[in-house]
């Protein structure tokens, strides 16, 4: 009996390295078909099924990929058995791959679909949980037939290749709906297609308190991003009120009341995520918004980000950097780490340097660990309990200077970079460098990114999805 087609949304994410190797293998100068298998971790969310490319098995022509019995070419039973066994051991979905010819459209042949019906129910049994399916690629298109169970199968909606400028592949060219008139001016830059991409995006913001995150929140809402997930565990106070976009005097709560009145009529200050949500809804009433009052190093908090299409890290702690760097590579989510710094001489009080920084983390290609931007000593200090801090006499943290205009520079650069890469306006292979804006010297510095092939973070976690544990703190620990 044929499987029942279901409407569950199914998407695929691939690291650029897997896609580069796959395309070089499939599209050669010989004009022939070639085969491979992708092993993918499986993430189920409220938006559907996301397959995250983890392993690539290339089929050798004439050995693993041979003339077919019913169709033109086929993977040999021995090659399929080896790949399925390895996928089952690693709890990965199995996706058989071959290529057709053409550019922007592709579809399975009748022979392809018949072979799926014969083979995939048996593979489902071997995998014991993850789905099995097939992908067929053209140069700029992909179609997928994914068997979720013996009785249910779904078509692949989209594949995204996570390069500095992401590529989106569909079975055929997409015709986006016309954009709302309120976006008329920006649609003149990137078209209805770009606006539709933004409307379908779910974007995380980690850290709303220093001012940078609150600006990013407003920019994303005004651009028309469809859903924002904002994470911060703090409340507004007088020291960050001038920099927190969308805050009102009443948000300070009883801190502005005389002590006698505060005792009877006082209320706590407003949480920063509630301020962010209020602003976003004022700007765009139809936006989706998750206000998560929590520390991102908590397990439940970071789980709210795993289904995001992009994340902005505006919390400048080493623990937040550690978790979000891992999230980037493990779930194939691009990250923009954003911040400002004012360096002041401790003795004289003179301003030594001022800079705003934007660091674009591309899964598998740029890493905060490899570039030396996660300090082990500071990470250990942040991870220590209050009792351990007292025992080891850690120096108390001194509040750093911060100015709203410097925050605006960093936020604007970061959201611009997100916007232009997301809608596909940047070069197809831009030179990936991180930017530091130094207003005192009126110069823009660049820093080359680094990745180490032996790195257990950017390489070891790549594409693991929910199969690996993120470096969040254990339950019950501070």
Annotation keywords:
478 residues; alpha/beta; 12 helices; elongated
Derived from helix and strand composition plus strand pairing, the structural class reads alpha/beta
Distance between the termini: 54 Å
Biggest sheet statistics: 10 strands, mixed
Query: Residue ranges: pLDDT <50 for 5 or more in a row?
Result: 392-397
Rounded mean pLDDT score? 90
Widest sheet: strand ordering:
1-10-9-8-7-3-4-2-11-12
**How many DSSP E strands?**
20
Oligomeric assembly: single chain
Total number of helical segments? Answer: 12
In which range does the helix fraction lie? 25-40%
Strand fraction band?
25-35%
Radius of gyration: 25 Å
Q: What is the general shape?
A: elongated
General description of the model:
- This protein is of the alpha/beta class and 478 residues long.
- It contains twelve helices and 20 strands.
- A ten-stranded mixed beta sheet has the order 1-10-9-8-7-3-4-2-11-12. Strands 15-14-13-16-17-18-19-20 form an eight-stranded mixed beta sheet, sandwiched between helices.
- Residues 392-397 have low confidence and may be disordered.
Quick overview:
The chain is α/β, with parallel strands linked by helices and 478 residues long. It is 30% helix and 25% strand. Strands 1-10-9-8-7-3-4-2-11-12 form a ten-stranded mixed β-sheet. An eight-stranded mixed β-sheet has the order 15-14-13-16-17-18-19-20, sandwiched between helices. The protein has a two-stranded antiparallel ribbon with strand order 5-6.
């Amino acid at each position: 009996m044929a499987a029942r087609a279901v409407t569950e949304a199914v998407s695929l994410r691939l690291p650029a390295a897997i896609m580069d190797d796959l395309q070089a293998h499939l599209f050669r100068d010989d004009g022939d078909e070639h085969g491979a298998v992708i092993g993918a971790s499986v993430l189920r969310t409220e938006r559907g099924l996301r397959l995250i490319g983890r392993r690539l098995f290339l089929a050798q022509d004439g050995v693993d990929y041979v003339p077919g019995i019913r169709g033109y070419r086929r993977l040999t039973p021995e090659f399929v058995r080896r790949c399925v066994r390895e996928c089952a051991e690693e709890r990965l979905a199995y996706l058989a791959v071959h290529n057709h010819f053409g550019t922007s459209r592709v579809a399975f042949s009748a022979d392809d679909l018949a072979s799926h019906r014969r083979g995939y129910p048996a593979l489902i049994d071997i995998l014991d949980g993850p789905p099995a399916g097939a992908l067929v690629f053209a140069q700029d298109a992909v179609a997928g037939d994914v068997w979720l169970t013996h009785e249910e199968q779904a078509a692949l909606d989209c594949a995204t290749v996570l390069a500095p400028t992401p590529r989106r592949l569909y079975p055929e060219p997409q015709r986006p709906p016309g954009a709302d008139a309120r976006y008329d001016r920006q649609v003149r830059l990137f078209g209805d297609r770009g606006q539709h991409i933004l409307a379908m995006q779910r974007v995380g913001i980690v850290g709303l308190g220093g001012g940078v995150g609150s600006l990013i929140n407003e920019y994303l809402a005004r651009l028309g991003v469809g859903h924002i997930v904002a994470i911060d565990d703090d409340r507004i106070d007088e020291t960050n009120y001038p920099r927190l976009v969308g805050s009102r005097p009443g948000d300070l709560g009883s801190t502005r009341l005389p002590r006698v009145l505060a005792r009877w009529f006082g209320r706590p200050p407003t949480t920063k995520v509630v301020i962010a949500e209020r602003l976003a809804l004022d700007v765009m009433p139809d936006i989706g918004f998750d206000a998560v009052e929590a520390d991102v190093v908590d397990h439940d908090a970071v789980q709210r980000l795993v289904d995001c299409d992009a994340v902005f890290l505006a919390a400048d702690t080493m623990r937040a950097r550690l978790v979000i760097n891992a999230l980037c590579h493990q779930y194939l989510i691009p990250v923009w780490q954003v911040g400002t710094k004012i360096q002041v001489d401790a003795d004289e009080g003179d301003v030594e340097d001022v800079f705003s920084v934007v660091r674009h983390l591309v899964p598998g290609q740029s890493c905060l660990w490899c570039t030396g931007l996660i300090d082990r000593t500071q990470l250990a200090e942040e991870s220590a309990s209050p009792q351990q801090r007292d025992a080891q006499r850690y120096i108390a943290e001194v509040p750093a200077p911060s100015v709203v205009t410097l925050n605006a520079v960093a936020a604007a650069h970061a959201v611009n970079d997100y916007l232009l890469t997301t809608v596909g306006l940047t070069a197809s292979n831009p030179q990936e460098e991180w930017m530091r804006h130094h207003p005192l010297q009126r110069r823009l510095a660049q820093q080359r990114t680094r990745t180490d092939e032996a790195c257990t973070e950017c390489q070891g976690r790549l594409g693991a999805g929910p199969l690996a544990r993120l470096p969040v703190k254990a339950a019950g620990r501070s």
